[in-house]
């Protein structure tokens, strides 16, 4: 028998924004970066759930001094702080 997971494979930008606890405008910037686990399906972006946590952990490992601000390197690369 094959086990079927009830967890979705993909989530919306809005859902990922809530999970990461960051503003929606920052999520739109993140999905455009090469290393963020997102794909575009038609006109909508979807986040790959299985790789989202891996991505967040890798951000913390790259910059251990930024604990509490794990997206600081991404903000810098995308052109500064926008809130």
**Structural class of the helix and strand makeup?**
alpha+beta
Counting DSSP H or I runs of 4 or more residues, the number of helices is 4
- Give the radius of gyration: 14 Å
Count of individual beta strands: 3
Write the H/E string, N to C. Answer: EHHEEHH
Give the biggest sheet.
3 strands, antiparallel
Helical content band: 40-55%
Main-sheet strand order equals: 1-3-2
Report the β-strand fraction as a percent range.
Answer: 5-15%
- Give the CA-CA distance, first to last residue: 49 Å
Total number of domains? 1
Low-confidence stretches: 73-83
Mean pLDDT: 80
Shape: globular
Task: Explain what the structure shows.
- This protein is α+β, with helices and mostly antiparallel strands.
- It has one domain (10-77).
- The chain has four helices and three strands; from the N terminus they run βααββαα.
- Strands 1-3-2 form a three-stranded antiparallel sheet.
- Strand 2 (38-41) and strand 3 (44-48) form a beta hairpin.
- Helix 1 packs across helix 2 (24-31).
- The protein is globular.
- The N and C termini lie far apart (49 Å).
Compact overview of the structure:
This protein is an alpha+beta fold and 83 residues long. The chain is 43% helix and 14% strand. The protein has a 3-stranded antiparallel β-sheet with strand order 1-3-2.
